[in-house]
Amino acid sequence: MLIAKRREWERRTRPVEPEMRAALARRWASLPESARTPAQTLGRHALGCEGTHGVFPRCDFACSPCYLPQGSNRVAVSGSHTVAEVAGQMEYLRVERGPRAHAQLIGGQVSLLSPDDHAAALLVMREHGREPMSMTHGDFDYDYLSRVTLGADGRPRLLRVSFAGHFDMLMRGRRGIEHPADERSLNPYRKRFCDLFERLRGEHGVRFFLAH
Q1: pTM confidence score
Q2: Which of 3, 107, 150, 165 is 20 to 30 A from 173 in CA distance terms?
Q3: Are 42 and 85 in the same domain?
């Protein structure tokens, strides 16, 4: 047992793990010849972005540049379906792209998932070596955020979360400002989004990383 643990520790502390080295080589080989330049990071230092695809396409906004298909809001958002599909996609990424990476939980709108289903999806991503980031329009309340991060016993089930909040004037449907006149008018809503996570850290010690 001790020898096995030492071997695992040695493998994990290598500059590049064998699985990652093999995944990088496959990525490099997949690039067109014209892209294999000295400045290219794909296939050398990184594999590129990862994210879920087509799992929960529903959204409660109506944004003018929306990329979702027309029938998205007629698709049921089922927790068991979401978690199973996320697990399957993460298993594929684990095999094809190496043991660890950052990955986006993206739909659709993540806050249409129940708090328990949202948390379960994040946990299954971590089980497959992914550091998940929830992509969101940010129009949810502290109650939702705390129910995602805290378990039934009130203690954190997620000690750290990453969220990317999307706020721009082409979005339609945000509470209090359904049709933003300009980008500056959204600043209070951006601040409110950040304040939710500051409160969560202050009350429960849950760390966070936010992107915009």
Answers
A1: 0.86
A2: 150
A3: no
List CB contacts of 194: < 8 A, sequence separation 6 or more.
210
Q: Where does 106-167 have alpha helices with state H? A: 115-127, 142-149
Helical axes 187-204 vs 142-149, angle rounded to 10°: 40
203 has pLDDT over 80? yes
Q: What is the pLDDT of residues 96-142, one digit of tens each?
A: 888 889 999 998 899 999 999 999 999 999 999 999 999 999 999 99
Burial class for 73, CB neighbours closer than 10 Å (0-12, 13-18, 19+)? middle
**Residues 105/121, Cβ–Cβ less than 8 Å:** yes
Residue 191 structure tokens: 């601040």
- Is residue 12 located within the same domain as residue 91? no
pLDDT tens for each residue of 151-191: 999 999 999 999 999 999 999 999 999 999 999 999 999 99
Containing domain of residue 17, as a range?
A: 1-46
